[in-house]
Protein backbone atom coordinates (compact mmCIF):
# COMPACT_ATOMS: atom_id res chain seq x y z
CA UNK A 1 0.00 0.00 0.00
CA UNK A 2 1.48 3.38 -0.98
CA UNK A 3 2.29 5.91 1.72
CA UNK A 4 -0.37 8.36 0.51
CA UNK A 5 -3.09 5.76 1.06
CA UNK A 6 -1.77 4.85 4.49
CA UNK A 7 -1.97 8.45 5.68
CA UNK A 8 -5.64 8.62 4.80
CA UNK A 9 -6.61 5.45 6.63
CA UNK A 10 -9.06 6.03 9.46
CA UNK A 11 -7.61 5.57 12.95
CA UNK A 12 -7.94 2.10 14.33
CA UNK A 13 -10.28 2.16 17.30
CA UNK A 14 -9.05 0.57 20.48
CA UNK A 15 -10.85 0.04 23.67
CA UNK A 16 -9.27 1.17 26.88
CA UNK A 17 -10.18 -1.03 29.74
CA UNK A 18 -9.75 0.23 33.28
CA UNK A 19 -8.14 -2.22 35.61
CA UNK A 20 -9.50 -2.15 39.12
CA UNK A 21 -6.85 -2.74 41.78
CA UNK A 22 -7.54 -5.61 44.08
CA UNK A 23 -7.69 -4.77 47.79
CA UNK A 24 -4.70 -7.05 48.53
CA UNK A 25 -2.42 -5.22 46.01
CA UNK A 26 -3.07 -1.70 47.30
CA UNK A 27 -0.27 -0.41 49.59
CA UNK A 28 1.69 -3.66 49.83
CA UNK A 29 5.34 -4.19 48.95
CA UNK A 30 6.72 -7.62 48.35
CA UNK A 31 9.29 -8.98 50.79
CA UNK A 32 11.93 -9.15 48.05
CA UNK A 33 11.42 -5.50 47.08
CA UNK A 34 11.55 -4.33 50.70
CA UNK A 35 14.77 -6.33 51.24
CA UNK A 36 16.31 -4.79 48.11
CA UNK A 37 15.51 -1.25 49.28
CA UNK A 38 16.95 -1.91 52.75
CA UNK A 39 20.14 -3.46 51.29
CA UNK A 40 20.67 -0.46 48.98
CA UNK A 41 20.11 2.00 51.85
CA UNK A 42 22.53 0.10 54.13
CA UNK A 43 25.18 0.00 51.37
CA UNK A 44 24.88 3.77 50.84
CA UNK A 45 25.26 4.43 54.57
CA UNK A 46 28.30 2.12 54.80
CA UNK A 47 29.91 3.68 51.71
CA UNK A 48 29.30 7.19 53.07
CA UNK A 49 30.75 6.27 56.47
CA UNK A 50 33.80 4.75 54.78
CA UNK A 51 34.39 7.95 52.79
CA UNK A 52 33.99 10.10 55.91
CA UNK A 53 36.45 8.03 57.96
CA UNK A 54 38.90 7.83 55.06
CA UNK A 55 38.48 11.55 54.32
CA UNK A 56 37.76 10.56 50.75
CA UNK A 57 36.33 12.77 48.08
CA UNK A 58 34.44 10.50 45.70
CA UNK A 59 31.16 11.94 44.47
CA UNK A 60 28.36 11.43 45.50
CA UNK A 61 29.83 10.30 48.82
CA UNK A 62 32.03 13.37 49.20
CA UNK A 63 32.30 15.09 52.56
CA UNK A 64 32.45 18.46 50.76
CA UNK A 65 35.27 19.68 52.98
CA UNK A 66 35.14 23.13 51.39
CA UNK A 67 31.84 23.74 53.16
CA UNK A 68 32.45 21.64 56.28
CA UNK A 69 34.45 24.17 58.27
CA UNK A 70 33.39 27.32 60.06
CA UNK A 71 34.60 30.41 58.33
CA UNK A 72 36.86 32.74 60.23
CA UNK A 73 36.96 36.48 59.65
CA UNK A 74 40.48 36.25 58.26
CA UNK A 75 41.97 34.99 55.02
CA UNK A 76 44.52 32.15 55.13
CA UNK A 77 46.82 30.75 52.47
CA UNK A 78 49.60 28.19 52.51
CA UNK A 79 52.81 29.16 50.74
CA UNK A 80 56.23 27.66 50.02
CA UNK A 81 59.37 29.73 50.48
CA UNK A 82 62.85 28.74 49.45
CA UNK A 83 65.82 29.70 51.63
CA UNK A 84 68.74 31.20 49.71
CA UNK A 85 71.74 32.74 51.55
CA UNK A 86 69.65 33.22 54.69
CA UNK A 87 66.77 35.05 53.03
CA UNK A 88 63.44 33.72 51.85
CA UNK A 89 62.29 33.57 48.23
CA UNK A 90 58.62 32.89 47.53
CA UNK A 91 58.21 29.97 45.12
CA UNK A 92 55.81 30.23 42.22
CA UNK A 93 54.42 26.70 42.26
CA UNK A 94 53.65 26.03 38.60
CA UNK A 95 56.89 27.68 37.48
CA UNK A 96 59.38 26.42 40.07
CA UNK A 97 58.04 22.92 40.75
CA UNK A 98 56.27 21.99 37.52
CA UNK A 99 54.08 20.03 36.82
CA UNK A 100 52.48 20.62 40.23
CA UNK A 101 49.49 22.93 40.48
CA UNK A 102 49.40 25.15 43.57
CA UNK A 103 45.91 24.22 44.80
CA UNK A 104 46.55 20.48 44.51
CA UNK A 105 50.00 20.70 46.07
CA UNK A 106 48.76 22.70 49.06
CA UNK A 107 45.82 20.29 49.51
CA UNK A 108 48.24 17.34 49.43
CA UNK A 109 50.51 18.96 52.02
CA UNK A 110 47.50 19.73 54.24
CA UNK A 111 46.27 16.13 54.01
CA UNK A 112 49.74 14.77 54.78
CA UNK A 113 49.67 16.81 57.98
CA UNK A 114 46.51 14.98 59.12
CA UNK A 115 48.16 11.56 59.04
CA UNK A 116 49.54 9.87 62.15
CA UNK A 117 53.06 10.44 60.80
CA UNK A 118 52.04 13.85 59.43
CA UNK A 119 55.10 15.88 60.39
CA UNK A 120 57.53 13.32 58.94
CA UNK A 121 55.41 12.77 55.83
CA UNK A 122 55.18 16.51 55.22
CA UNK A 123 58.96 16.95 55.62
CA UNK A 124 59.56 14.07 53.18
CA UNK A 125 57.23 15.76 50.68
CA UNK A 126 59.06 19.08 51.13
CA UNK A 127 62.40 17.32 50.50
CA UNK A 128 60.94 15.86 47.29
CA UNK A 129 59.68 19.31 46.24
CA UNK A 130 63.13 20.78 46.96
CA UNK A 131 64.74 18.08 44.81
CA UNK A 132 62.21 18.77 42.04
CA UNK A 133 62.97 22.50 42.23
CA UNK A 134 66.71 21.85 42.03
CA UNK A 135 66.34 19.42 39.12
CA UNK A 136 64.33 21.96 37.13
CA UNK A 137 66.84 24.70 37.99
CA UNK A 138 69.81 22.62 36.82
CA UNK A 139 67.88 21.79 33.61
CA UNK A 140 67.36 25.57 33.10
CA UNK A 141 63.57 25.24 33.29
CA UNK A 142 63.46 28.29 35.60
CA UNK A 143 65.91 30.96 36.70
CA UNK A 144 65.45 30.65 40.47
CA UNK A 145 68.46 30.63 42.81
CA UNK A 146 70.01 27.51 44.32
CA UNK A 147 68.17 26.86 47.57
CA UNK A 148 69.56 25.85 50.95
CA UNK A 149 66.17 24.79 52.26
CA UNK A 150 62.42 25.04 51.98
CA UNK A 151 59.80 26.44 54.38
CA UNK A 152 56.06 25.86 54.39
CA UNK A 153 54.05 28.70 55.93
CA UNK A 154 50.45 29.53 56.65
CA UNK A 155 49.91 33.20 55.89
CA UNK A 156 46.88 34.97 57.33
CA UNK A 157 45.36 38.38 56.93
CA UNK A 158 42.71 39.90 59.16
CA UNK A 159 40.02 41.45 57.01
CA UNK A 160 40.72 45.13 56.57
CA UNK A 161 38.95 47.80 54.59
CA UNK A 162 40.41 48.05 51.10
CA UNK A 163 42.84 45.21 51.90
CA UNK A 164 45.12 47.77 53.54
CA UNK A 165 47.15 44.98 55.20
CA UNK A 166 47.72 42.89 52.06
CA UNK A 167 51.50 43.33 52.24
CA UNK A 168 51.79 42.42 55.94
CA UNK A 169 50.34 38.96 56.64
CA UNK A 170 51.01 37.14 59.85
CA UNK A 171 53.04 33.99 59.22
CA UNK A 172 53.08 30.64 60.98
CA UNK A 173 55.82 28.15 60.10
CA UNK A 174 54.29 24.72 59.50
CA UNK A 175 57.34 22.75 58.33
CA UNK A 176 60.92 23.30 57.23
CA UNK A 177 63.63 21.23 55.54
CA UNK A 178 67.27 22.00 54.81
CA UNK A 179 69.72 20.45 52.36
Note the main attributes of this structure.
single chain; 179 residues; alpha+beta; four-stranded antiparallel sheet; 5 helices; 37% helix; 19% strand; elongated
Give a verbal description of the structure.
It is a single chain. The chain has a domain of about 110 residues. It has 5 helices and 4 strands. It has a 4-stranded antiparallel β-sheet with strand order 2-1-3-4, covered by helices on one side. Strand 1 and strand 2 form a beta hairpin. Helix 4 packs antiparallel against helix 5. The protein is elongated. The chain starts with a helix and ends with a strand. The relative contact order is 0.12.
Topology:
Blueprint: H1 3-7, H2 31-54, E1 74-84, E2 87-90, H3 93-96, H4 102-114, H5 118-138, E3 149-158, E4 170-178
Antiparallel strand pairs: 1-2, 1-3, 3-4
Helix pairs in contact: 4-5
Amino acid sequence: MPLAERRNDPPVPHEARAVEPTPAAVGTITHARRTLVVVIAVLLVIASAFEIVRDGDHWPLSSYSMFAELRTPDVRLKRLYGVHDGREVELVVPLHVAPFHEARLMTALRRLGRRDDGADARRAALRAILERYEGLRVAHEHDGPALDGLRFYELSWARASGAANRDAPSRRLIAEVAR
